[in-house]
């Protein structure tokens, strides 16, 4: 079990904010994944989107794959997925191709044993860092077609604003709140083992997935791609948890890296499709997709300062993206 379960077990208001406050994934990103999959003789029969939340990407996957398996551990999310995907246009175009089940990714080999060795591509969209990574990766490897199955995991939650003055105000807002969230979880741990598990778990996201071990006995042609990470002034370590809990979460992530010799590590500037433009309301939606306390003095004070400089205008920025792709042996 992950140290923090079901963060994405949320109501409609949260998912409304999520639609506004997270990037609309460009077609070029999906095409990059499909090209990789196709280059390894991957088939386009069955794709699995675990931890699907509201099934945001499911219909786009259904445009390419014959069948889409959609899973999530939350009863509330599963009901929302069913409602969203039961609309007449969806049913007309893809209804027969969608299969929805409640399950944690880690539990799929038990809850859905029929998936073993049948999934052509697993699409982990901004969710892998909410799992217990070792059983999650074991589950992924067991589901994928061997050989040629493709594992995909990506994350793109840390927005960077171009205007330095505004970004300096924006950067600490979310980390200062998420730090309180993690500190509460840390202080609630009763043993040193639980605290270590929490740290190891949190570093998955903070390391841009570099701490995710891709077993070389099970996978080949591993690609770790960082898009827009070289944007001047961007540092994922301070954009997520930041300097607010350095006594718990170390800034030096090198000891936690699981990047192996032979893996293809790529850094690209690719703003097209990942650029942000919005006013204070859109920035608020971005913030509300994170564990913040909207009524806390910390948040209200910082937000008032941001409102004072953004005003009625719009700001521009970019979404840095972490992407892993690997092929099942």
Automatic annotation (TrEMBL):
PANTHER family for the chain: METHYLTRANSF_11 DOMAIN-CONTAINING PROTEIN (PTHR44942), METHYLTRANSFERASE TYPE 11 DOMAIN-CONTAINING PROTEIN (PTHR44942:SF4)
Record has Nucleus as a keyword: no
Gene3D superfamilies per record: Vaccinia Virus protein VP39
Organism of provenance:
Pseudocercospora fijiensis (strain CIRAD86)
- Annotated InterPro entries: Diverse_substrate_MTase, Methyltransf_25, SAM-dependent_MTases_sf
Q: What is this protein called?
A: Methyltransferase domain-containing protein
Question: SUPFAM superfamilies given for it?
Answer: S-adenosyl-L-methionine-dependent methyltransferases (SSF53335)
Give the record's keywords alphabetically: Methyltransferase, Transferase
Q: Which domain of life is it from?
A: Eukaryota
Q: Name one GO biological process term.
A: methylation
Specify the Methyltransferase domain's residue ranges.
Answer: 49-132
GO molecular function list? methyltransferase activity
